[in-house]
Amino acid sequence: MLFNFTASAALHAKHKRAKEVLGHKVPAGLPENIFDQALEDLLDRRDPWRSMARKRARETRKNVGGTTR
């Protein structure tokens, strides 16, 4: 799928910084991988569905841990 747009200099600078910050996770530095990881991080912090899933997973681990002791 082609994803093409024109961006401001400020967005270009943010992308460049993200590439530096994510160098350990995205060693090739491909733009699609940088944007993918940035969106994953954003959704992990802001998406209510993901938040509920994390809460359920924590409760499950807590309950499983409590019954095995």
Low-confidence stretches: none
Q: Compute the gyration radius: what is it?
A: 18 Å
Sheet of most strands: none
What is the string of SSEs from the N terminus onward?
HHH
Distance between the termini: 50 Å
Structural class: mainly alpha
Number of strands: 0
Oligomer: single chain
- The percent range for helix content is over 70%
Q: Can you count the helices?
A: 3
- Overall mean confidence score, pLDDT: 87
Shape: elongated
Strand content: under 5%
Walk me through the topology.
Layout: H1 9-21, H2 31-46, H3 48-67
Please describe what this structure looks like:
The protein is an all-alpha fold and 69 residues long. It is built from three helices and no strands. The chain has helices at residues 9-21, 31-46, 48-67. The longest helix has 20 residues, at 48-67. It starts with 8 loop residues before the first helix and ends with a helix.
Distinctive features:
69 residues; mainly alpha; 0% strand; elongated
Short note summarizing the structure:
The protein has 69 residues and is an all-alpha fold. The chain has three helices and no strands.
